[in-house]
Amino acid sequence: MFDLSNKVIKWQMLYGRHDLPWQQNRTPYKVWVSEIMLQQTQVVTAIDYFGRFIATFPEVNSLASASEDQVLALWSGLGYYSRARNLLEAARLIVDIHDGVIPSDFEALMNLPGIGRSTAGAILSLAFQKKIPNT
Predict the structure, then answer these.
(1) How far apart are CA 97 and CA 49, in angstroms?
(2) What does the alpha-carbon distance between residue 118 and residue 135 come to, in Å, rounded to a whole number?
(3) Could you give the C-alpha distances from 57 to 18, 20, 38, 78, 88, in angstroms and in order?
(4) How far apart, in whole angstroms, are the C-alpha atoms of residue 29 and residue 5?
(5) Cβ neighbours of residue 29 under 8 Å, at least 6 residues apart?
(6) pTM
(7) Residues catalogued as catalytic
(8) CA triple 39-44-49, angle to 5 deg
(9) Which of 19, 80, 91, 125 has CB 3.0 to 4.6 Å from 63, enough for a Cys bridge?
(10) Other CB atoms closer than 10 Å to residue 111's CB: what's the count?
(11) Among the residues of the chain, which ranges form H helices?
């Protein structure tokens, strides 16, 4: 199994995507937004939406201050609008409960709307370099 893991990692380093917008100047906020957008959405579709979303709401406080109509307007065409509503509600909770800082704790992330085990694990791994077992 270790040999297979090493081969997969080497392949990804050589041929995997390394230039996606959420991989550039990576922040926990950008990782979170991208992970929510990528639920049920192809990467190629999410790229433009991500760029517009981050340009309008560059950090969690600006998103938390937005109206639902503003968020849904940017999300329009991406589908599964509950993701956008959950993103907005979670941003408001992050500001209110976590002083505007994306939590780096698995349970705290899981308590936010729209974040399940897989998304919490991805955020912790990609944004905080933490390894969380998928049990």
Answers:
(1) 27
(2) 10
(3) 23, 18, 17, 17, 11
(4) 29
(5) 59, 60, 102
(6) 0.85
(7) 35
(8) 70
(9) 91
(10) 14
(11) 2-15, 28-37, 43-56, 60-64, 68-75, 82-98, 106-110, 117-128
- Consecutive sets of 10 residues in the chain, 135 residues long: mean pLDDT of each? 76 67 86 94 92 97 98 94 97 98 96 95 93 66
Between CA 18 and CA 10 the distance in angstroms is 13
Structure tokens at 124: 């912790």
The CA distance from 46 to 85, in Å, is 17
Q: What are phi and psi of 17, to 5 degrees?
A: -75, 130
CA 127 – CA 123 distance, rounded (Å): 5
State the residue for tokens 């939590």. Answer: 103
Q: Which has the closest alpha carbon to 50: 81, 22, 24?
A: 22
User: Could you tell me which CATH class the domain 21-128 is placed in?
Assistant: mainly alpha
Classify residue 104 by its DSSP letter: -
Per-residue pLDDT at 84? 97
